[in-house]
């Protein structure tokens, strides 16, 4: 009887270990699929899977030449996969790091600062003033901050309107925000090389998307050609959104409540345009 109980306990322990093993593997596969869903890696991973199946069939079918070729190339294929999926791997490690940190959200005064972004984006949209605002989150943007003009100034609607004024020396390039402060202006950003992007997107939009492919930052883009407001995050872009939609998305992405401030009407914005852009003839604009 004692021997039976020992055997039963051993079998039960092994069963629980097997169940835990299967659950962990399933969770890992699910997280990988969730990570690549809707990205360029999804069709590439399907291609890799098809090649793996073909190589397995060649192995079991005793196709010696192909089997030898696969065995020879297999060690190098691991490095090839790392190169191909480098962006997705960086995103996965960054997401894991964010989950392991204790910082959940941002200071309470950041929500008011982000509402200044919404008001400024609305002004730029109505005046057809090009603008690119990058919001830093967990991954630091020091490399890109150092490429611009350091400011370290408190974020405000008036300061954003001044920076992106067409006659201002800092209006070209991106403004990078760190919490409720403007870290730098006229910053250079990496351009997205995604071939699936619309050919209608200019350099400003590709730069706004490119920084979100490399980091977890958020980009707010205003087209100088059409005045349309866009939001880029995780390599994807949401085009032609309203100021209210921008406010909602910033609230969701930063996990903070963004205070609701009335967006100026076209009449009020026209008045601000006369005050802030006096002397500008508005000619010579082109999408950057």
What can you tell me about this protein's structure?
By secondary structure, the protein is of the alpha+beta class. It folds into 2 domains: 2-100, no CATH class; 110-276, YojJ-like (1 (3-Layer(aba) Sandwich), CATH 3.40.1700. 54% of the residues lie in helices and 14% in strands. It is built from 10 helices and 7 strands. It has helices spanning 2-36, 41-60, 64-84, 86-100, 110-127, 142-145, 157-163, 203-214, 243-254, 266-276, and strands spanning 131-135, 149-154, 174-178, 181-187, 218-222, 229-233, 236-241. It has a 7-stranded mixed beta sheet with strand order 2-4-3-1-5-6-7, with helices on both faces. Strand 5 (218-222) and strand 6 (229-233) form a beta hairpin. The longest helix has 35 residues, at 2-36. The model is unreliable at 102-110, 257-262 and 265-288 (pLDDT under 50).
Short description:
Helix content is 54%, strand content 14%. The termini are far apart.
């Amino acid at each position: 009887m004692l021997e039976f109980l020992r055997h039963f306990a051993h079998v039960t322990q092994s069963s629980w270990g097997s169940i835990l093993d299967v659950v962990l593997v399933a969770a890992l596969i699910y997280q990988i699929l969730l990570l690549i869903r809707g990205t360029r890696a999804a069709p590439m991973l399907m291609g890799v899977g098809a090649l793996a199946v073909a190589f397995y069939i060649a192995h079991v079918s005793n196709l010696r030449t192909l089997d030898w070729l696969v065995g020879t190339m297999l060690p190098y294929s691991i490095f090839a996969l790392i190169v191909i999926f480098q962006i997705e791997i960086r995103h996965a490690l960054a997401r894991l790091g964010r989950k392991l940190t204790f910082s959940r959200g941002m200071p309470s005064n950041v929500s008011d600062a982000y509402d200044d972004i919404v008001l400024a984006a609305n002004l730029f949209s109505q005046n057809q003033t090009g603008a690119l605002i990058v919001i830093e989150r967990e991954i630091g943007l020091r490399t890109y901050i150092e490429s611009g003009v350091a400011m370290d100034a408190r974020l405000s609607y008036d300061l954003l309107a001044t920076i992106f004024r067409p006659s201002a020396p800092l209006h070209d390039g991106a403004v990078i925000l760190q919490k409720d402060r403007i870290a730098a202006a006229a910053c250079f950003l990496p351009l997205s090389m995604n071939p699936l992007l619309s050919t209608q997107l200019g350099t400003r939009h590709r730069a706004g998307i490119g920084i979100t492919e490399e980091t977890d930052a958020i980009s707010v883009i205003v087209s100088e050609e059409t005045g349309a407001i866009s939001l880029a995050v995780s390599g994807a872009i949401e085009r032609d959104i309203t100021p209210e939609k921008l406010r909602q998305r910033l609230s969701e992405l930063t996990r903070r409540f963004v205070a609701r401030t009335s967006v100026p009407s076209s009449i009020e914005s026209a008045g601000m345009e006369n005050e802030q852009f006096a002397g500008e003839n508005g000619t010579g604009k082109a999408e950057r």
